[in-house]
């Protein structure tokens, strides 16, 4: 190999440019500034959304946290933030459709809201994105999904590959699969961003044909920087071939 070949990088694997046009809709992100652990400024939000548009995303459903102890958001605070974000996007001439739902944390307060018939922020009028803690299984996990369904909602289980309690609980995993609970995986999980165990479990869910939705779960610029490496990983093309529900949202 010549010196010129070395300088030009000959013999090394070239990174394929990331293209998310096949995804169409990014249905999990934290882009409304200053209301959770996501974007902390309007400039950051505009920059992130601009990058998503360049990657081929046509529509964004951003999903701020609603957590009793930490992020006490409500439909009011989220939709007000969405209005401000839309105005800023228009001012900067960023052409993208953007809506807002929420990422609800499954706890007793959330269950009280569901059982009381409180209106929740949804995607497509029916889908509700929910999450749990990463280490311990909630005692009322399956009951929570059932309660949502009784109210006419369809629960989406946010990033199940990140729940370590699920990795070794075959009975629980089978119960969720048998119930037809929709699994939404994070694209970054397939890069190893959250660790090897999460990546391995995320790949397992794809092979089991259980991943029905994908999202960036973008919180900041660092997430999007890491996402550029997705094409270097073997499951990138498997993800592109999935029969996803994203485009229906």
Q: Can you give me a brief rundown of this structure?
A:
The protein has 249 residues and is α/β, with parallel strands linked by helices. Helices cover 37% and strands 14% of the residues.
CATH class: Alpha Beta
What form results from the Cα inertia axes?
A: globular
Give the strand tally: 9
What is the overall pLDDT average? 93
Architecture, according to CATH?
A: Alpha-Beta Barrel
Radius of gyration: 19 Å
- Number of helical segments with 4 or more residues: 10
Query: In terms of structural class, how would the helical and strand content be classed?
Result: alpha/beta
What sequence of helices (H) and strands (E) makes up the elements?
Answer: HEHEEHEEHEHEHHEHEHH
Whole-number tally of structural domains: 1
Poorly predicted spans? 1-8
Give the neighbour order of strands across the main sheet.
3-5-6-7-8-9
Strand content: 5-15%
Looking at CATH, the homologous superfamily is: Metal-dependent hydrolases
Share in helix: 25-40%
User: CATH topology, which one?
Assistant: TIM Barrel
Largest sheet: 6 strands, parallel
Distance between the termini: 51 Å
Structural summary, described in words:
The protein has a single domain (19-242), classed as Metal-dependent hydrolases (TIM Barrel). Helix content is 37%, strand content 14%. The chain has ten helices and nine strands. It is globular. The N and C termini lie far apart (51 Å). 36% of the residues are buried. The model is unreliable at 1-8 (pLDDT under 50).
């Amino acid at each position: 190999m010549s010196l010129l070949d070395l300088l030009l990088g000959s013999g090394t694997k070239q990174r394929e440019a990331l293209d998310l046009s096949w995804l169409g809709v990014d249905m999990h992100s934290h882009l409304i500034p200053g209301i959770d652990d996501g974007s902390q400024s309007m400039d950051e939000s505009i920059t992130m959304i601009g990058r998503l548009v360049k990657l081929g995303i046509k529509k964004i459903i951003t999903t701020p946290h609603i957590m009793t102890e930490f992020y006490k958001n409500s439909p009011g605070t989220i939709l007000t933030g969405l209005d401000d974000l839309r105005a800023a996007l228009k001012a900067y001439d960023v052409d993208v459709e953007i809506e807002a739902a929420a990422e609800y944390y499954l706890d007793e307060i959330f269950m009280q809201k569901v059982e009381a018939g409180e209106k929740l922020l949804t995607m497509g009028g029916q889908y509700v994105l929910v999450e749990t803690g990463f280490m311990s299984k909630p005692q009322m996990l399956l009951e929570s999904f059932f309660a949502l369904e009784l109210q006419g909602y369809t629960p989406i289980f946010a990033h199940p590959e990140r729940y370590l309690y699920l990795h070794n609980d075959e009975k629980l995993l089978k119960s969720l699969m048998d119930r037809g609970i929709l699994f939404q995986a994070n694209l970054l999980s397939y890069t190893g961003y959250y660790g090897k165990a999460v990546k391995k479990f995320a790949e397992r869910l794809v092979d089991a044909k259980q991943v029905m939705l994908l999202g960036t779960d973008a919180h900041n610029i660092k997430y999007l920087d890491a996402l550029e490496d997705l094409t270097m990983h073997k499951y990138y093309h498997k993800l592109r071939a999935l029969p996803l529900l994203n485009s229906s949202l």
